[in-house]
Design brief:
single chain, 365 residues, alpha/beta, Rossmann fold, globular
Length: 365
């Protein structure tokens, strides 16, 4: 791909790794937030290029992985209704709920359709006026503008058979929750470049100030991540805590202002439960009252309930950077991408899936 080769150049990558080794004098724990970054780290063996004592742990940056069990169960409940067409991104179909998943619901006759854009769900609603169309709207700030636009378009057209089951999460509150945890080990963060493309860098300033933790916005290619790691280590070794932007080719300080405006018009900030982690204050988005007619929870009176994760699944500890997937006793045996116990094993951005694909023979005994 044009302009991409330089960010995968082995010579540049090894040079950056050598620089990291040269400036590292103490043990440090760094966390990348985005699941896409996790897969790059594992695929290219970047962690193996780093000096001993410099540890990379993996954060809750996979939207599929942190979607609550309750949301999956609600989606299955809706999909099994004969009057409903449930529209979802493909990577949600195999995510386990408490007793089933959308793939099995589809096999049982549920009308579950895949989409690459939320506006496809609006189109389906437009073409099926006699059916209720529900779009499973998940994701971080990256997907929120497009999902907001779907609700905005449905309201503009006066569609009465379209709604969204919303489970949006926000990155900065999750980092704050990690930092205030007594078990926190992280000393520096690689912030997710795709989120910052939408939201900009400014909202991370408070975290740097409040916790004196360095944060570097990073891209997704090997050179991006090695450069972000180098920037973090230099700060830590110098006793500094700053916000820096490695991903300057895509991220500006203010971000995509029109995208932020449509988000604010349709959504408002709310408390949100994260799968395996629990409720984090003001870490999610919900539809504003003006768009309440498009809230599937309200349309179908779904109510509230609580579901617990399988006891043997340690995904919560993986998502908080406390354990690696290979430390799970059922990793690669009872828990595989074909038979996942937790969402991080089935998601295309999940840490467990990354370790299964690239490191499953390195299981800790």
């Amino acid at each position: 791909m044009k302009y991409l080769d330089e960010y995968r150049d082995e010579r540049i990558a090894r040079g950056l790794a050598e620089q990291v080794a040269a400036v590292t004098t103490k043990p440090w724990v760094l966390m990348e937030i985005c699941g896409g970054q996790t897969h790059t780290l594992m695929r290219y063996g970047i962690d193996e290029l780093l000096p001993r004592g410099l540890e990379l742990v993996h954060g809750p940056g996979c939207p599929v992985c942190v979607t609550p069990l309750e949301t999956i169960d609600k989606a299955i409940q809706l999909a099994l209704r004969p009057d409903v067409i449930l529209v979802s991104y493909g990577d949600m179909l195999r995510v386990p709920g408490s007793s089933s998943d959308l793939f099995r619901a589809k096999a049982q006759g549920a009308d579950v359709r895949l989409a690459y854009s939320p506006t496809e769900a609006v189109k389906i609603a437009r073409s099926n006026p006699d059916r209720q169309v529900v779009f499973l709207a998940i994701g971080f700030e990256t997907t929120a503008p497009a999902n907001a636009m779907a609700a905005w378009q449905a309201k503009r057209e006066g569609l009465t058979n379209f709604s969204m089951l919303v489970s949006h999460v926000l990155v900065p509150p999750a980092i704050r929750a990690l930092m205030v945890s007594e078990s926190n080990r992280v000393q520096g963060f690689i912030a997710p470049g795709h989120v910052c493309t939408v939201m900009g860098c400014g909202e991370y300033e408070d975290l740097v100030r409040d916790f004196r933790v360095p944060i570097v916005v990073g891209g997704f290619e090997p050179v991006d991540l090695l450069e972000a790691i180098l920037m973090l280590v230099k700060q830590l070794e110098a006793g500094e805590a700053k916000l820096e932007n490695q991903y300057v080719r895509s991220v500006s300080y203010q971000g995509n202002v029109p995208a932020q405006q449509i988000m604010k018009e349709v959504f408002e900030v709310a408390d949100q439960k994260w799968r395996g982690i629990g409720a984090i204050p003001r870490s999610g988005l919900r539809l504003r009252e003006e768009f309440g007619n498009f809230d599937a929870n309200r349309v179908f009176d779904l109510g509230e309930f609580t579901v617990e994760e399988p006891a043997e699944c340690i995904s919560a500890q993986v998502l908080q950077g406390l354990k690696k997937p290979t430390e799970c006793p059922v990793f690669g045996m009872r828990c595989t991408p074909e038979n996942p116990l937790g969402a991080p094993m089935v998601s295309s951005e999940g840490a467990c899936a990354a370790y299964y694909q690239y490191r499953r023979h390195a299981v800790v005994s």
